[in-house]
Amino acid sequence: MEPLLSVRSLWVYYSSNPALRGVDIEVPEGGVVAIIGPNGSGKSTLLKSIIGYVKPSRGRVFFRGRDITGLDPSKALRMGIVYVPERRRVFPELSVEKNLLIGSYIRGVDKRRSRELLDLVYSLFPNLRVKRSKSAAVLSGGEAQMVAVGRGIMSDPEVLLLDEPSLGLAPRIVASIYDAVSRLNRSSGVTIVVADQMLRALEISSHGYVISNGVVIEHGDREYLMRHKTIVDVYFKYS
Ligand code: ADP
Ligand code: MG
Questions:
Q1: Confidence (pLDDT) at 235
Q2: Distance from the CA of 40 to the center of ligand 1, in angstroms?
Q3: Strands 17-27 and 5-14: what pairing?
Q4: Does residue 60 contact residue 67 with C-beta atoms inside 8 Å?
Q5: Does residue 54 contact residue 42 with C-beta atoms inside 8 Å?
Q6: Which whole-number Å values give the CA distances from 11 to 21, 56, 63, 73, in the listed order?
Q7: Cα 143 to middle of ligand 1, angstroms
């Protein structure tokens, strides 16, 4: 079956430095795919080039068989390609719920669907429901990350691109966020691509890619990668 999303021989340069050097990935519809690699390996660049924040100099990005290489980020969003950036940003002057609703607003999700999605977010992250009318300024780092993921869900994604949701969070919090992401995939069938330095991302994935210095050095299904030495090296060195 044709993948929902695929990246073919992608090259990205920042001035004259290559950040991605011929990357290929395939994301099946309804799947969870992990992009694992140390800091600076090109994970964010890969996700950003899928949504068009970064323009590749060579290679192609396909979504539902359509060439979307270098598309405008707002068009990618309209198609349902939703990016949750690695630095979780909340608007501290707004309530938790308003922060979440922004996700629906930016994609023009209708009111009724937005209510459904809000219920879904609150069922995945019950403490956000408890704090729904509180100012987002009072949230912990973990809760702010939940809001960031929740806001992505509120855009009603076809594919959700999560950029290092574990960054700076305690292992217990990381586990609960990944748990929710996994439940989201199983209950709603949302396709997920998650980039992280932590093996936890691979644990919820069907398959993954190990990236180092802008090159995919290993890929395969979860069991294969979990056993593989390369990924163990990455994990022990960088987490
Ligand atoms: P990761 O997300 O895996 O940490 P990045 O995609 O952020 O990796 O970075 C890949 C490489 O590109 C790194 O060497 C980084 O320093 C470089 N890089 C990232 N963003 C920029 C930028 N805006 N300008 C110049 N170099 C960048
Ligand atoms: Mg990054």
A1: 63
A2: 5
A3: antiparallel
A4: yes
A5: no
A6: 5, 6, 18, 18
A7: 26
Token couple for 215: 């090159």
Helices (H), 23-170: 43-51, 73-78, 96-107, 111-124, 126-130, 141-154
Residue 86 per-residue DSSP state: S
Say if CB 159 and CB 191 are below 8 A apart. yes
Inter-CA distances, 91 with 101, 157, 215, Å: 12, 21, 35
Listed by start position, the domains of the chain span: 5-238
Question: Across-strand partners of 108?
Answer: none
Give the number of other CB atoms < 10 A from CB of residue 137. Answer: 12
Q: Does 177 have pLDDT greater than 50?
A: yes
What pairs with residue 35 in β-bridges?
195, 209
Q: Tell me if 209 sits within 8 A of 25, measured CB to CB.
A: yes
Query: Is it the case that residue 237 has pLDDT exceeding 80?
Result: no
CATH of domain 5-238: 3.40.50.300
Closest residue CA from atom 22 of ligand 1: 14
**pLDDT, tens digit (0-9, with 9 covering 90-100), for 106-162:** 999 999 999 999 999 999 999 999 999 999 999 999 999 999 999 999 999 999 999
Q: Rounded to the nearest 5°, which phi and psi values hold at 227? A: -85, -15
Residue of the nearest CA to atom 7 in ligand 1?
A: 44
Confirm if 147 and 69 have CB atoms less than 8 A apart: no
pTM for this predicted structure? 0.95
Ligand nearest to the CA of 38: 1
User: In this predicted model, what pLDDT tens digit does every residue of 199-214 receive, in sequence order?
Assistant: 889 999 999 999 999 9
The amino acid occupying position 5 is: L
Ligand closest to Cα of 210 equals 1
Q: Which atom of ligand 1 is nearest to the CA of 86?
A: 2
